[in-house]
Amino acid sequence: MSSAPVSSGPVTTTIIMIVVLLVVGACQHLRVPVGSSTPTTTGSGTAALPPVSGPKYPEPENADTNPELPESPVVSNSEAEWRKMLEPYLTENVAPLIQPSMPATVTAPVLTPIGGDTVRVGILLPLSGPNAPLGTSMLNAAQMALFDFADSDFELLPHDTAGQPEQASFAAAMVIGDGASLMVGPLLSRSTHAIGPISRAAGIPVVAFSSDSTVAGDGIYSLGFLPRNEVDRVTAFAMSKGLRRFAVLAPSDPYGVAVVDAFNVALSRYGGTIVQTAYYDRSGSNIDAVVKLLADYDERRAALLRERKLLDGKEDELSLNALKRLDLLETLGDLPYEALLIADGGDRLQQVAALLPFYDIDPQKVQILGTGQLDAQGIGAEPALVGAWFAAPPPQARIKFQQRYEQTYGVRPHRLATLAYDATALAAVLARSGSPYPFAPESMLQSSGFAGRDGLFRFAPDGTADRGLAVLQVQPRQNVVIDPAPSSFAALTN
Fold it and tell me: For the domain that residue 364 is a member of, what is the CATH number?
């Protein structure tokens, strides 16, 4: 059940008291110790998130991406209510932080920095609850970035969201009261929506990890992986190899719809055609029937049986040889598409892949395409997926990060840990600019982008992330890069 809007009375008093409490140190601060060395390269020797030169990358359509874990309902506090509650802790003598390239809705004054030149950045993660292992992995990665890139006057303020929107709002209030000039996180979209009113009321930008593009804009930047980037990249590569006619198979959920929409946009841009679109229930209960229809199995099977019947009883050599060839076939006739994009991962993808050869969608004749969900260890164990193409961040930098993480913490990092590393590294690098507003839009929206552990990235004016991706091919033991990631965003416009 959603919480009622906060307007006045005891609830407002309680929230203001919470904000006051944090000024006396209700959270843990992480900073580079004074006197410690601050490396300009990572432990693996990789360059430290430098800006990458190049012109602006053309903006594809918005889309959602990786499925997220469920959350409880979002709190309904409005931006105006949060601004009113925060007024005692805001200074009227500091210029407001405005988003010039977005709707100018950020009008509240910015908090006066606490502690002189110290730059404080809050990081909101699920450190308790069912997503705690993921949150802990991301916090570990953020601390690695802190020691790789931050000066001694940079502080990271971790706060637990417990994976709940209400707790995320509480954490955001604590971060603001503690003088943070940027928030990193939360992880999930509903938590990000929940903190939007309070972050905008205080004029504090947010770098969220959500893959839901609807959270972005008006001072909120989303670093999550969007299918529009993955689909556009693999579509362009497939068409460069001469493929023109495509089919798409997707679950009937927001992610599947987003992938199909992105695929239509990409094919319209590059001149390809979707000849067939098939959706199956998100429960997976009707996958068998949908794949069978996509394969036109009944008609192609009937065509084979008719041809066999015509040849039965004929004794000439030509008929006998033709009958022998037909005995090796399951169906007769070609499919109307040359490539099939499967917009799924995990167990449902495995189920779909097993049905492709069963209904005679031959991966040797139909090129299988996928999204970043194919970027998973052991995916090549399913024979029908071997040879599939998909777009994903270049693996080299991530592999080095993973090795260093394992050496530091003794366990393998979660796949999304690199998001926390890149976001914290970005914050630390921008904080070293010496600007009184290091996270202003002109800094966050650099068109040249940055080089992170998940490759090139930059924020578009709508707050979503563009990425420079590689194209990989699924192999039985390990996916391999078959088309490298671009070295700059300029390369994507040539």
Answer: 3.40.50.2300
CA 424 centroid distance within chain:
16
* Domain identity same for 195 and 339: no
- Are 431 and 351 in the same domain? no
pLDDT tens digits, 320-358: 777 777 676 778 888 999 999 999 999 999 999 999 999
The answer on 22 and 116 residing in a single domain is yes
Could you tell me where the beta strands, DSSP code E, fall in 164-270? 182-184, 206-208, 220-222, 245-251
**Residues 356 and 384 sit within 8 Å (Cβ to Cβ):** yes
> 222 φ, ψ to 5°?
-110, 120
Global pTM value: 0.76
CB atoms under 10 Å from CB of 382, counted, come to 18
- Residue 80 is encoded by which pair of tokens? 């105006």
Residue ending a domain, choose from 354, 373, 392: 392
Q: Among positive and negative, which fits the CA dihedral 101, 106, 112, 113?
A: negative
127-185 residue pLDDT tens? 999 999 999 999 999 999 999 999 999 999 999 999 999 999 999 999 999 999 999 99
The type of residue at 279 is Y
Q: Are the C-beta atoms of residues 219 and 202 closer than 8 Å to each other?
A: no
Nearest one of 191, 126, 190, 184 to 420, comparing CA atoms: 184
pLDDT tens by residue, 58-102: 333 333 344 444 343 344 456 666 555 555 544 433 333 222 232
**Residue 65 shares a structural domain with residue 131:** yes
Q: 99 and 38: one domain?
A: yes
Q: What is the DSSP letter of 248?
A: E
The answer to whether residues 209 and 257 belong to one domain is no
Q: Encode pLDDT of 286-330 as tens digits.
A: 999 999 999 999 999 998 888 777 777 777 777 777 777 767 677
State which of 372, 392, 412 marks the end of a domain: 392
Phi-psi region of 162 (alpha: psi -120 to 50; beta: other; left: phi over 0): left
Q: What is the DSSP string of 120-132?
A: EEEEEE--SSTTH
Contacts of 146 (CB under 8 A, 6+ apart): 30, 31, 32, 154, 156, 424, 428
Residues 6+ apart with CB under 8 A from 279: 249, 250, 251, 252, 256, 290
In contact, 243 and 258? CB cutoff 8 Å: no
In whole angstroms, what is the distance from residue 103 CA to residue 82 CA? 19
| Whether 428 and 371 share a structural domain | no
Task: Give me the domain span that covers residue 231.
Answer: 227-296+335-392
